[in-house]
Amino acid sequence: MEEALICIGCGATLQSTTQSQSGYLPASALKKAQAEVDDDLEVYCQRCFRLRHYNEIMPVEQDNDSFLALLNTLSAKQALIVNVVDLFDFSNSLLAAMKRFVGQNDFILVGNKVDLFPKNSREVKIKDWMRQEANRQGLFPKKIFLISAAKRRGLDELITYLAQASRRQDVYFVGTTNVGKSTLINAIVDQMGEVKDLITTSRFPGTTLDQIKIPLANGHFLIDTPGVLTHNQLGTKLSADNLDLISPRKTLKPVTYQLLPGNTLFLGGLGRVDYLKGPDSSFTVYASRSLFIHRTKTINAGDFYEKHRGGLLRPALMGPDAPALKGQEFVSQDKSDLLVGGIGFVTIPAGCVVKSYTPAGIGLGIRRALI
């Protein structure tokens, strides 16, 4: 019986029978790989190959229940748990079940994409906010790090910490889809002088399909686990093209709009902010430069949305099953950030009453302004 081979990009077992399932490789390529396995051939499945070389995503069947079952085993292990979160969708990318996964193990929070915050952002305020939100969910991280996996920012301090922690235990990286876990591990391994760009990464959810174990010189492992799919992230509901529109690549450039009560801001077709009550004010939007922002009168906003959704107001969730925009009212006691579904945030002054909308109300919230 041939020894099972593992795709080093996504962790799936290679197979040549079903193209729609993970680990698919044409029979001829798989046979060649099996014949050369003793030569330490690095083998990628067809999906990872096309993703790495052509940036094409080939959808495969994914079993989220199996991913969760894998994470549930962590509480019985001696391990350090690293929860990687997206700083622009923190509440939805922080795993609600983390307390069960961690057990008696230590865990740390790693906030990714800090490079997207404007340069005048205070990292201590960002960390304080992360800790407060984690504590609110009954989670008490031993340490919090702010990094940019893509720009290799903040890695030295994290690597030093992991080098010490991994002397006595394996290190598991966990998180929801599209938070940058695999990109981070690649950056860490590369900076440690190991294999460059080992794990397949992309902007699309669900790249890692099984755990990937990377051996360390001390006998322990860095382990990348599959991203958990959650219905509370807009990114999991968008096509690749639309995901690109809301995913910023550069530091967010603030854009300020003067609003009166009775004005509305649209953030593409995915976010809406109605200004209900307060003084004439400046609302500052922090979002991808590709996202179209439009100001209009609230009285006309409903008709405008129905007419231009998916056209002028893009991206948007379309089709008969697309969830409608659902709103929630907020009052800013202090200068505050309105959180808009992982799209970005809108900074508003104190003393404003607003109503924010996203599809099905996903990702709505408010916090004291970080900038």
Q: Which helices and strands, and how do they pair?
A:
Layout: H1 27-35, H2 46-54, H3 64-72, E1 79-86, H4 90-93, H5 98-102, E2 107-112, H6 123-136, E3 144-146, H7 155-165, E4 170-174, H8 181-191, E5 212-215, E6 221-224, H9 240-246, E7 255-259, E8 263-267, E9 271-277, E10 281-287, E11 293-297, H10 298-308, E12 325-331, E13 336-340, E14 344-348, E15 353-359, E16 364-368
Parallel strand pairs: 1-2, 1-4, 2-3, 4-6
Antiparallel strand pairs: 5-6, 7-10, 8-9, 8-11, 9-15, 10-14, 12-15, 13-14, 13-16
Give a short synopsis of this structure.
The protein has 371 residues and is of the alpha+beta class. Helices cover 24% and strands 24% of the residues.
Structure report:
Mean pLDDT is 82; it is low at 194-209. The strands form three sheets. This protein has a six-stranded mixed sheet with strand order 3-2-1-4-6-5, sandwiched between helices. Strands 7-10-14-13-16 form a five-stranded antiparallel sheet, with no helix packed on it. Strand 13 and strand 14 form a beta hairpin. It folds into three domains: 1-61, no CATH class; 64-230, Rossmann fold (3-Layer(aba) Sandwich); 255-368, no CATH class. With 371 residues, it is of the alpha+beta class. It is 24% helix and 24% strand. The chain has helices at 27-35, 46-54, 64-72, 90-93, 98-102, 123-136, 155-165, 181-191, 240-246, 298-308; strands spanning 79-86, 107-112, 144-146, 170-174, 212-215, 221-224, 255-259, 263-267, 271-277, 281-287, 293-297, 325-331, 336-340, 344-348, 353-359, 364-368. The chain is globular and about 70 Å long. 42% of the residues are buried. It contains ten helices and 16 strands.
